[in-house]
Fold this sequence. Notes:
The protein has helices at about 10-30, 70-80, 95-110, 120-130, 155, 160-165, 175-190, 210-220, 240-245, 275-285, 290, 300-310, 315-335, 355-370, 395-415; strands at about 35-40, 45, 55, 115, 145-150, 170, 195-200, 225, 255-260, 270-275, 345-355, 370, 375, 385-390. With about 425 residues, the protein is an alpha/beta fold. The radius of gyration is 22 Å and the shape is globular. The N and C termini lie far apart (about 45 Å). Pyridoxal-5'-phosphate binds near residues 155 and 260.
Amino acid sequence: MKHEINTHNINWLTNRIKRSEQHQESVWNNRANDFSFDKRDGKKVTLNESGHKMIEFMSCSYLGLEDDPRIKFAAKKAIDQYGVTFAAARTRMRPEITNVLDEKLQRIFGAPTITFPTVGLCHLAVLPLLGANELPSYPINNKVHWILDQTSHASIQILRGVLEQFGPVTRVNFADIECLKNSVKQVSELGYTAITLSDGVGSMGGLAPVKVLLELAKKYRGYAYIDDAHGTSIMGKNGAGYVLQELDDDFPRELVLTSSLAKAFGSTGGAVSVYGIDDDKRIRKYANPYIFGGPLAIPTIAAADAASDIHLSEEIYTLQNKLKRSCHYFDSIAPPNTVNHGNPVPIRGLFVGCEERAIQINKQLMQKGYACTVAMYPTVPEGKAMIRVAISNKHTDTDLSRLVDEFNQFANVEEMAL
Length: 418
Ligand SMILES: Cc1ncc(COP(=O)(O)O)c(C=O)c1O
């Protein structure tokens, strides 16, 4: 018997896959992604199948710390001392280096900080405790109402069903400040505790209105939960990130901050910072992925520890300034409609619009030896496809200018052909 699909009951995920499938299939079929390399020298990678050499603009290790000799040495030494992993939840037992890292992260972020193997697990650990009124510094009056930025990273969006167990979720475009303010006001006046959820630095462009979010939280006695994965390290005192830089390096009691140790920081993992030590203790005793999940791998703890020393030294400002200079240089040569043009973050989107065109341009860039990411729906809105460029301290000015030249050539030729 033929199985009939009831289109009325299609879930959001199937619906989204259906809308994106044509372009997603095309990017694979055109071989414009899904490469693997077996040699790497800074930004130069050699593909293992063909030996083709490329400059990559894909990795988000913006400060270029991932192959710093001090960090690599620390990781190797820790393997010799402790092995590759200690396969037990940290509540039971952990290598001492775990405590050393936590203490350094607390100094960097100016607040108690707990690590998890990924940023996504930070969300899964902390949002339920926050919504359940289980974090002492973040009391909930009545019930929470989550106000979720429409452009928040997928790692938060996917938790909508989890969030709804604790209170309603409203999705709002935080770039529309009036709409954001009205939403927080309305739910607060209905007696809810409003918790805004957003990225600090958008992975595909845009910056959170951090000051507004904290003002709203203070005014309506709510909280701001901000994921600063892409802002970590590249800005702020000791590399504490974009969000804390916007707040003059002072950790307010209305903030819950997540940071990534896997992008500019130079290791892997995620970290969540909370206002009080009692919140920290509560997370370590009751957060699901902490008590029922494993720790970070030992070399990555040691790598993060060595990277923390760099963050806690003057060297971090030299690295941040170098990156800033490269971003200015890129902006001086890139088309003015480039996404994030002039923004103080190292993510740029060479704007194309049409998905299929973006795939073809990316494919040609690949053939010329430039590996970029095609960003398309659902990562960005439909019809707003772009070539995503992650600028790093390891790129030379020549790498950047050649990429822009090639892009301009392909983009113009493609335009004429249409
Ligand atoms: C803003 C943001 N948050 C979270 C994540 C997910 O990080 P993780 O892989 O550590 O879960 C990403 C990944 O790129 C991201 O861009």
